[in-house]
Structure formats: structure tokens, C-alpha cells
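hey can u check if this looks right to u? its 309 residues, i copy pasted from the old doc so theres a chance i mangled smth
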Amino acid sequence: MFPSNKNNTSNSKLQASSSSTSDLLKKVRKIEIKTRGLSNQIFSGEYHSAFKGRGMAFSEVREYQHGDEVRTIDWNVTARFGHPYVKVFEEERELTVMLIVDVSGSKEFGTQQKSKQELATEICAVLAFSAITNNDKVGVIFFSDQIEKFIPPKKGRSHILMIIRDLIDFEPESKGTDIDQALKYFNNVIKKRCTAFLLSDFVSSNNFENAIKIANRKHDLIALKLYDKAEEELPNIGLVPMLDAETEAIQWVNTSSKTVQKEYKIKALKQRDYLQSTFKKGGIDNTQIGTHEDYVKPLMALFKRRGAK
């Protein structure tokens, strides 16, 4: 009789699992250090200006000072003390911020500095840390052509780190994209008005024009289009097999053909124009962020545009 090797197998699996968990935690920590620093140093003030609270709430009364508006005088307190007092109001700051993240097959695409998934992870982390710095709640919806996961809004660093971990490590069940379904789910699950960031390449199987309008009427919806240069301009690399990440269909394409390159670019420009038209009709604030560029500049520009409104 030979001794059983079950214990050795179990130990190997535990070691592999431990190593995998350790690597994941290192990735989470690395993203936290980078994005939390950006949030504290750059984004927090702009975020506060760009995303307003629910209105003004009474805070206290104080003695009238030169320059105070007459309409803020509290006449009851003034009568009681014999000289003028004014009401002081503060912004009701607390918001709920939802991150609606496309985790379809195309998220892994990237020919530049990073993949769309890596880009989405860092942007979400920056937004999440900016939110909790301003005492806002953060929640997430992961979607493909189905709802993959819903993380209810909460506050706190540990909650944000859990979100970052899922952004890095989450494996969707499906590879397609259905923005219409994602927005309908979002409208149903989040009842009170919130600020929502929709991160996607916006290549969807269904038309989402109506859903995006409805979502923006009920909430404050911001669209962040993530893209890669190779999706807009075909690189000249000869005859190559191209895999559709969402359907897994393979098609051979002659990237050296001027006709193919032209048709590819025209299609990309039409898609871009369609998106801009959709966002404009729906009153959606939006920006485009490429895998080849630093996301700080387009995000800051978006925040400043909103803050100036």
C-alpha cells in the first residue's frame, strides 16, 4: 500500500491560493497608493465643486455682520435679543455615487499603456476615493449583457478596497454588452437621486438612447467612454486574424489594404458621432479617455466644466 498524497495536493492548492491572494492584495495596495494620492492632491476640490449636494440646510444663527443679506435675518431671534441675528445655511453634502462598469469581453482589449479594464479600475478608484473624502457613499454595478454584480452604496476605506479588488479580479459570466439593460436595472435598484458614472466603450448590442435619457432625468449621469487607438485607426500589420472579444468570432483582415483601413476609420468615426449625438440629446456630461493617455487631464477638464455651470 502506498501512502496517500491528498495532503500534499491540498497543501499545494492552499499555497497557490495564498500566493494568488497575496498578489491580488499587492495590486489593490498599489492602486490605492496611486489613486488615493491623486484624489487627495488633485481631484477632491474639483470633485466637490463639480458634484453638488442635495441643497442647503439650516446650520445655526449668528449675529448680523456688515454685508449679510437682509433676507437671512432671523426675526424671532432678533426680537428676543434686541439686535439682528441671521440664519446660516450649509450645503447638504452627502451624495450617493454609483459606478456603472462595463465588464464585457472587450474590457481586456488594449494595445497601448494599459487595457480598458486597467484604465477603468484606476478611474473608478480615483472617483471612489474622491467620493469618500467628501463623505459620500459609493456603490457599483458590474454589467455585460446581463447584470453581473451589484455592490450597494456604503462609506469607508475598507468598502473602497473591496470595490478595487473586484475591479481587478472579477470574472463576468457573459462577454456581451447591453447598456440598455444596465441602465434599467440601475434606475430600479437606486431609488433616490444620485450621481452615476457609466464607464464603457459603448459598443452595445441594443439601442440605449431612451434608457440614457430616462436615467439622466432621474439621476445625474456622466458617461466616460474608454477606448483604444487601435479601435479607431487600424494598424498596418498585414493579414491577421481578429477575435471579437464579445462573440469570440475570428475574422481574417488584411490591415495593409487602404480600402479596409478607410472603411474601418469611417465606421469608427460614425460610432463616435452617434455617441456624441446620443449624449447631447440625453443632456449627458461626458468625456473620452484612451488607454494611451493619462486620465487625469480629461477628468479634470470634465470636473471644471461641471463646476463652471
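Helices lie at 6-50, 75-81, 116-133, 157-169, 179-189, 209-218, 258-282, 296-308.
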